[in-house]
Write a structure and sequence with these properties.
Blueprint lengths: L4 H7 L6 H4 L29 E2 L16 H5 L4 E8 L4 H16 L5 E3 L3 H9 L3 E8 L10 H7 L2 E5 L21 H13 L2 E3 L5 H10 L4 E2 L17 H9 L4 E3 L12 H16 L4 E3 L11 H10 L6 H4 L12 H11 L4 H19 L2
Bound molecules: zinc ion.
Zinc ion binds next to loops.
Length: 367
């Protein structure tokens, strides 16, 4: 995820009232009906289910969710919105949930907070975008596995173990990973019990392999790319991809520039990543989680401010600019579908990658 300076300051506690920092920069919550939202331009996708398994907001309670129109207008049917990550205090994740649920419930003509997987299809049928939430790191539990069930009731449908850095539950991908802890094992068991998807993105290699041995339900990487195509601490090895597929899970290829291989364009880089995963483990185990942030999504300077303030979460070796590729926007779904067809992919396989694989896993795990 990337952030505006305003979001960064709010998150790391350097600014009490974020809204004051940038007068005029943050339109307040708009009232119910946005005229621009009347219709969705999803014709190029021909009715294909489009599932984006992870957004990259800098989650704050006053985040302007009108930006969700970027996804809706691109024909995206489902989005998992990140509401917390290990960098921020768990209480802010709860405040984010309160604010986002309230905002979404006031706009039922455009959005549907879904509980079951088939609700996603219901939302699509009625021209609305389906939404659930995700947490990036088990610090959101404040050491208490009983919060899993509470978050689930609030609409959180997936959670990863450790965001880049070690926490109480396990190791992060940019840290000395010592594996899944006893607390982490309790949390995974509780997630399997309540039906919350276990996500391995951002988590250290050893911890992910422990998780995939322990979990009794399909496991996902919501937004991670093959390390063989781009050497980056956040990307994942063939071992991890194979282990995920063995659980029946899905690897969500992600669209941020620094995780993408150097190619002629972002859509080509994404097509190469999904093709790589398909060739390794078959067409049933690959999807997309773009990690797109609508605000300043290509603003290198803003991200540098946050990563510079927290080098233990974002080691400069992995995040120092420049990198070759631009971030993907939700418009890439239609471009990617066209490119995969051009490359000779079957209609059925394109549909799996764009959404049906993640739908299958959600059907198997959510309750
Ligand atoms: Zn992330």
């Amino acid at each position: 995820m990337k952030f505006t300076r305003r979001e960064i300051l709010a998150q790391i506690g350097l600014l009490a009232a974020a809204a004051e920092a940038a007068p005029g920069a943050a339109p307040g919550p708009a009232s119910g009906n946005s005229p621009s939202a009347a219709s969705r331009k999803d014709a190029p996708l021909h009715g294909t289910l489009v599932w984006d398994d992870h957004s990259g907001f800098g989650p704050t309670p006053d985040y302007n969710l009108e930006h969700l129109e970027d996804w809706r207008q691109a024909g995206v049917d489902y989005l998992s919105i990140d509401v917390g990550y290990d960098v921020i205090d768990w209480t802010q994740a709860v405040r984010n949930l309160g604010a986002y649920i309230t905002w979404l419930e006031q706009r039922p003509e455009r959005f549907l907070l879904v509980r079951r997987a088939d609700d996603v299809l219901e939302a699509k049928k009625t021209g609305r975008m389906a939404i659930t939430f995700d947490l990036e790191g088990m610090s959101a539990l404040n050491g208490d596995s009983s919060l899993v069930s509470l978050y689930y009731r609030l609409g959180v449908r997936q959670m990863l173990t450790a965001y880049n850095k070690n926490n109480l539950a396990g190791g992060g991908c940019h840290d000395q990973d010592t594996g899944l802890t006893a607390f982490g094992r309790r949390v995974i068991a509780e997630m399997n019990r309540v039906g919350m998807l276990v996500d391995c993105s951002h988590t250290g290699y050893r911890t992910t392999m422990d998780i995939m041995e322990t979990a009794t339900q399909p496991v996902i990487f919501s937004h991670s790319n093959p390390k063989q195509l781009r050497r980056h601490g956040r990307n994942i090895t063939d071992d991890q991809i194979r282990a995920c597929a063995r659980t029946g899970g899905v690897i969500g290829v992600t669209g941020l520039g620094y995780y993408l291989p150097d190619r002629a364009s972002t859509v080509v880089a994404l097509a190469d990543c999904v093709s790589y995963v398909r060739d390794l483990v078959g067409p049933d185990h690959v999807g997309l989680g773009l990690d797109y942030s609508p605000v300043d999504s290509n603003d290198v300077a803003e991200f540098d401010a946050l990563s510079g303030a927290k080098p233990d979460f974002w080691p400069p070796a992995d995040y120092a600019a420049p990198w070759a590729m631009q971030d993907a926007t939700p418009r890439v779904f239609a471009q990617l579908a066209a490119l995969l067809h051009e490359r000779g992919w079957s209609e059925a396989d394109v549909r799996k990658v764009l959404g049906e694989n993640f739908l299958r896993v959600a059907r198997a795990v959510w309750k």
